[in-house]
Amino acid sequence: MEIIAKSTSVRVSPRKVRLVADSIRMLSVEDALRALTVINKRGSYVLEKTLTSAIANALNNAHAKRENLFIKSIDVNEGISFKRFHPSTRGRVHPYKKRGSNIRIVLEERGDKS
Questions:
Q1: In terms of CATH architecture, what is 2-109?
Q2: Which is the most buried residue in 13, 27, 41, 73, by most CB within 10 A?
Q3: Which of 38, 29, 34, 36 is nearest to 3 (CA)?
């Protein structure tokens, strides 16, 4: 059985979150949480919150055992981006985007035969 948790409109760039997500893919839940507390990147805090939410969904809604859970997939997609402008010389402006991301974590139980 698949357990899903989503975080939308997170104010961290998708590229920064993907760097951390690639390091914890296909790990058990305990190993991933341990790794996220040690990783010193901006995206690790957001992924830790989403993973904790997915674990809570699995325990409360699906009645799964915590030691049997592992991360099946992590999707980090482009979310909203705010368009901003930086003033420049001679009355010009330079546009840039403050990017956001949408995170989706899918957990699965190892003992699941379906």
A1: Alpha-Beta Complex (3.90)
A2: 13
A3: 29
List the chain pLDDT tens, one digit each, 114 residues.
899 999 999 999 999 999 999 999 989 999 999 999 999 999 999 999 999 999 999 999 999 999 999 999 999 999 999 999 999 999 999 999 999 999 999 999 987 554
Domain boundaries, the chain: 2-109
Q: CA–CA separation, 104 vs 4, rounded Å?
A: 7
Report how far residue 44's alpha carbon sits from residue 85's, in angstroms, rounded to the nearest whole number.
28
